[in-house]
């Protein structure tokens, strides 16, 4: 019998206590690599970047790898359990120019202007009202020509997603995967994720969490970002959407 899922709120805080231990193991490799490639293509030589929802730091490392001398990253991660993984990853690097901010994205503060705001796998935590607050908080901090980068939202409307198994990584004798599916929850979705650990043909353990998420279309994001002073960038790298702040 599958475990009864822990139900969290849209911040994901309770759910992270479940999935943090699995996060890097179950993140789809092809999706991760596509996002890393997109960041490299877009942000090479970008000096000052804020990353909203840094999680365990999978993409923070990529941002750091592409910084020019004197550049810096601000990593915003309010979930303590994810921040523990983030700081552990960053501490293994040689004095990286990254400042970890524990505040949530609507309240975190940085000094000076920014060249890019990056949000990967986090936008579904923000309600429409909070997204507008998010843009109002960060886009004024962007320099003219600065970029906003988000991953392509999927799904883009509130439609049920049948449960399917997402293969993960292998560590030693054990293999990890996730069963993920979503039901319609008002204007959004209720996702249920079951994280499973296998050894050979034996199911060793499984943990489950359900969390609500907000859905948003590319068209809605375009409207919101245009209102905030940013124009969509044509032909962005695979896996992301990009906007550029106007020059005035």
Automatic annotation (TrEMBL):
Residues 50-147 form the Methyltransferase type domain. One of its GO terms (biological process) is methylation. Pfam families: Methyltransf_12. Gene3D superfamilies: Vaccinia Virus protein VP39. This is Class I SAM-dependent methyltransferase. It comes from Amycolatopsis speibonae. GO terms for molecular function: methyltransferase activity. Keywords: Methyltransferase, Transferase.
């Amino acid at each position: 019998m599958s475990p009864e899922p822990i139900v969290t709120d849209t911040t994901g805080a309770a759910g992270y206590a479940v999935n943090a231990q699995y996060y890097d193991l179950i993140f789809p490799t092809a999706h991760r690599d596509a996002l890393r490639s997109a960041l490299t293509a877009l942000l090479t030589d970008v000096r000052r970047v804020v990353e909203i929802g840094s999680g365990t730091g999978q993409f923070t490392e990529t941002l750091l790898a592409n910084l020019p001398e004197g550049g810096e990253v601000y990593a915003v991660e309010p979930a303590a359990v994810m921040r523990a993984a983030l700081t552990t990853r960053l501490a293994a690097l040689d004095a990286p120019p990254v400042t970890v901010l524990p505040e949530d994205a609507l309240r975190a503060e940085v000094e000076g202007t920014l060249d890019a705001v990056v949000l990967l796998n986090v936008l579904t935590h923000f309600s429409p009202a909070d997204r507008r607050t998010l843009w109002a908080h960060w886009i004024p901090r962007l320099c003219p020509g600065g970029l906003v980068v988000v991953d392509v939202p999927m799904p883009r409307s509130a439609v049920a997603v049948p449960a399917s198994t997402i293969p993960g990584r292998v560590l030693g004798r054990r293999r990890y995967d996730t069963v993920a599916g979503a039901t319609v929850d008002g204007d959004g979705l209720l996702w249920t994720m079951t994280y499973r650990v296998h050894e050979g043909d034996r199911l060793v353990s499984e943990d489950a969490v359900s969390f609500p998420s907000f859905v948003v279309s590319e068209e809605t994001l375009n409207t919101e970002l245009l209102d905030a002073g940013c124009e969509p960038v044509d032909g962005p790298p695979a896996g992301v959407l990009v906007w550029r702040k106007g020059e005035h």
